[in-house]
Specification:
The complex is a heterodimer of chains A (about 110) and B (about 110).
Chain A (H helix, E strand, L loop, with lengths): L3 E4 L2 E4 L5 E7 L5 E7 L5 E7 L6 E2 L10 E5 L2 E6 L8 E8 L6 E3 L3 E5 L1
Parallel strand pairs in A: 2-11
Antiparallel strand pairs in A: 1-3, 3-8, 4-5, 4-9, 5-6, 7-8, 9-10, 9-11
Chain B lengths: L4 E3 L2 E5 L4 E6 L4 E9 L5 E8 L4 E4 L2 E6 L4 E6 L8 E9 L8 E3 L3 E6 L1
Parallel strand pairs in B: 2-11
Antiparallel strand pairs in B: 1-3, 3-8, 4-5, 4-9, 6-7, 7-8, 9-10, 9-11
The chains are: A mainly beta (about 110), B mainly beta (about 110).
């Protein structure tokens, strides 16, 4: 299985600022993804992080608000830009392991925007 | 719209009883994965079942898949208080190409009373 770590685990931020979340996988994986889980809700896919190219965003999510990088096969970052209280959520990184097709998730980053 | 829908939304049982959660989906899938989430933390992968499989077991967990009815069930036998968590099903759609994103259901909150 793949072990995924995220930093920070939680943060409290002021409106209008930006936060970058880091995701590290302990083995090479084929695909990495970023999800959002709003309070009391299920998970919604933000984007697929593509290595060396622009991320693929889902409907309702845009690059200016959620810029994503993936410089190599095991690392990705998600930035939440110009934050508002509506961005308060848990942000989760996941990675799909080729061969098993299993998607593993990181522990999440709990973001609170004041 | 959500691909997966869990049923029931909440389930409360006594320790030692079995818990059954159901998941329905709408379109053709590659696989279906079940996850557990404890109190807003990261997701723990439980079982992956492929579209050509009908049943899988892992310890006290049993998952079934009925592609004709587009439904899956997760059975936890001899439940323990530590099984208290939210359980999500997630489907990987069979859309061809390299689109491996997961679509999550709303989840079932399982409470196991000691």
């Amino acid at each position: 299985s793949a072990v995924i770590s995220q930093k920070p685990s939680r943060d409290i931020c002021q409106r209008g600022t930006s936060l970058t979340i880091q995701c590290q996988v302990d083995s090479q994986v084929t695909m990495m993804f970023w999800y959002r889980q709003q309070p009391g809700q299920s998970l919604t896919l933000i984007a697929t992080a593509n290595q060396g190219s622009e991320a693929t965003y889902e409907s309702g999510f845009v690059i200016d608000k959620f810029p994503i990088s993936r410089p190599n096969l095991t690392f990705s970052t998600l930035t939440v830009s110009n934050m508002s209280p509506e961005d308060s959520s848990i942000y989760l990184c996941s990675a799909r392991q080729g061969g098993t097709d299993t998607q593993y998730f990181g522990p999440g980053t709990r973001l609170t925007v004041l | 719209s959500q691909q997966g829908e869990e049923d029931p939304q909440a389930l409360s049982i006594q320790e030692g009883e079995n818990a059954t959660m159901n998941c329905s989906y709408k379109t053709s899938i590659n696989n279906l994965q079940w996850y557990r989430q404890n109190s807003g933390r990261g997701l723990v992968h439980l079982i992956l079942i492929r579209s050509n499989e009908r049943e899988k077991h892992s310890g006290r967990l049993r998952v079934t898949l009925d592609t004709s009815k587009k439904s899956s069930s997760l059975l936890i036998t001899a439940s323990r208080a530590a099984d208290t968590a939210s359980y999500f099903c997630a489907t990987e759609l069979n859309s061809g190409g390299s689109n491996y994103k997961l679509t999550f259901g709303k989840g079932t909150l399982l409470t196991v009373n000691p």
